[in-house]
Amino acid sequence: MARTALIVGAGIGGLSAAIALRQAGWQVRIFERAASPRELGFGLALAPNATRALADLGVADTVLARAFAPPRLLGELRRMDGTLIKRFGLPVAAVMGGTMAIALRPALHGALLDAVGLDAIAVTREAQGFTQIGDRVALHLSDGENIEGDLLVGADGIRSAIRAVLHPSEPPPRSSDIVAVRGAVHGVVDRLGGLGGVYYLGPGVESVFVRASETGIYWFLSLARELVPHGMTDPAAVLAHLTPRFDATFRAVTSATGDLRFDEL
Asked: Is it true that domain 4-66+104-166 has CATH number 3.10.490.10?
C-alpha cells in the first residue's frame, strides 16, 4: 500500500512537494484554507537551480513558455528622475550557469496546479496543528476533523500552524521598517523601450520593472517606512505619493496597472 503524505498549503511549495512525492510513489492529500487554490500574486525570478528543479518536476517547459527568459538581459540603472546611471547587457546563461527566467506568479502556480490536479486538493480546510502517533501523524483541522497520514509537510506560509507546533517559543516576525507596493500589468511592454528591465535607486527607495512574459511586466516599489505618511496603507495612495518623483517610464507603467498590493516587510 502506498504511503500517504498530508500537505498543508496549496501554494508553490506545497504543490511542488506534492509532485515530487508522487514521483517517489507516495499518495498525496493537500489541505488549503482558502476557498480556491488559484494564486493571484505578482512575479518572481527563477534562478537556474529553480528551472532545473522545475524540469525534474516535469513543468519547466510549460513555465518557461509563459515567462521571460532572454539569453541576454538588457537593462538600465536609473535615478528616480530617469537620469541614467548605467546601461548593461547581462549574458544571463553564461553568468548564471543556466536558464534564468522572470515569471508572473500565476504562470508558475498554474503549471504546478495543473500537474497536481484539483482532485488532490481540499479547499476551505484550515490546519490548526498536529499530533505524532507512533510512526504516523494526525493533522488537526479547524472544523474538528483529524486526518491521519504517514508524513506531514507544512507549506502554510509565514504564520504556519505546523511550524508553531514544532517551534512554540519562536517569536513572531520582526518588521524591517520597509513597505512595498507591487503590481503586474500586460500590454505596455513598449514603455520599457526594448529593455528587459529598469532598476531605480534613490534615498530610501528601490524599484524594479522587468519583463515577465511576452506581454507582461512585473514591478515593485520598496520604500523606507519613514517616506510614507503615517497610517497610509492603500497601495494607490502610496504610489500617488511617490510617483511625481519618478520618470515617464515609471509613471506610464504604474498608471496602467489596475491590481496593486501593499506589503509591510
From this structure: no
Residue 218, judged by CB atoms within 10 A of its CB (0-12, 13-18, 19+), counts as buried
**Model confidence over 102-134: pLDDT tens digits?**
999 999 999 999 999 999 999 999 999 999 999
pTM attached to this predicted model: 0.90
Domain boundaries, the chain: 4-66+104-166, 72-99+175-264
Q: For the segment 128-171, what is each residue's pLDDT rounded down to a tens digit?
A: 999 999 999 999 999 999 999 999 999 999 889 999 999 999 99
8 vs 10: CA distance, rounded Å: 7
Alpha-carbon distances, residue 242 vs 132, 236, 246 (angstroms):
51, 10, 7
Q: Does domain 72-99+175-264 have CATH number 3.30.9.30?
A: yes
Identify any residues that bridge with 140 across adjacent strands, giving them in sequence order.
129, 146
